[in-house]
Amino acid sequence: MTSFITFLERTVPKNIASKQKSINPVPYIKKTKKKFGLTGVKMALEIMEGFNADLHKSPWGQIRNIYWVDIAQLKDLFKSESLETLCGKFIDQRYIDFLSHNFDSIGDINWRKFEGLTCEFFEKQGYYVEIGDGRDDDGIDARVWLKENDMSGPPTIIIQCKRHKAKIEKMVVKSLWADIQEYKAESGLIVTTSLLSPGAEKVCTARNYPITQANRETLERWINVMRSPYKGVFLAE
Fold first, then answer.
1. What are the CA-CA distances from residue 90 to residues 51, 86, 93, 211 (Å)?
2. Tens digits of per-residue pLDDT, 49-73?
3. Which CATH fold would you assign to the domain 74-226?
4. Where are the domains of the chain?
5. Residue 160 near residue 188 (C-beta atoms within 8 A)
6. Any residues with CB less than 8 A from the CB of 74 and at least 6 apart, and which?
7. What is the structure's pLDDT at 58?
8. pTM for this prediction
């Protein structure tokens, strides 16, 4: 680890000066092998894999203060389908911070923003996420993979987002199961502001469907995980 830090301290300034966006790890690997042998090389590879995984996560995390360069209109959280943002990949971080203090508003946000919120959570956890097209996504709101290299193959999780007040009925579960089979996904997830109906839960259990739910309580935990630390409500009313 000490060698890796030293390598970064020497390499990063050179890359910045030459405007190189990637780091060649070969010198680090060669030096590690010479000093520690094959065991050291294996450890070095694990260090770099962990480092890359951290880089993939959204930078708007617990160790960074954000200096806003634009204005996020609060009304857009409820009325706009746009997912364009400078402060997140799928939804603006300021909307997450707002919801962390006003969670009762979760059921009123725009349906597309709800999909973006779901995708943002998985993205921040280090997964690789592809959001659906929106109105023409055939019921698949998001696909999730564990690794970037896996994105050309079947997804790990297929997600359906249901911003509903009523309970989710079994037809939604059956539809998601059909998508899991068609796309050879490992599992399915229904993200809802409500929860599965008893009939829907029974179908999952009786037929052993690899489908779980993220309900209202789960969403509240997700938002608390994603919110900026030590921040109050700073969006204009």
1. 23, 10, 9, 24
2. 877 766 666 554 444 556 667 788 9
3. Trna Endonuclease; Chain: A, domain 1 (3.40.1350)
4. 2-56, 74-226
5. yes
6. 98, 235, 236, 237
7. 54
8. 0.72
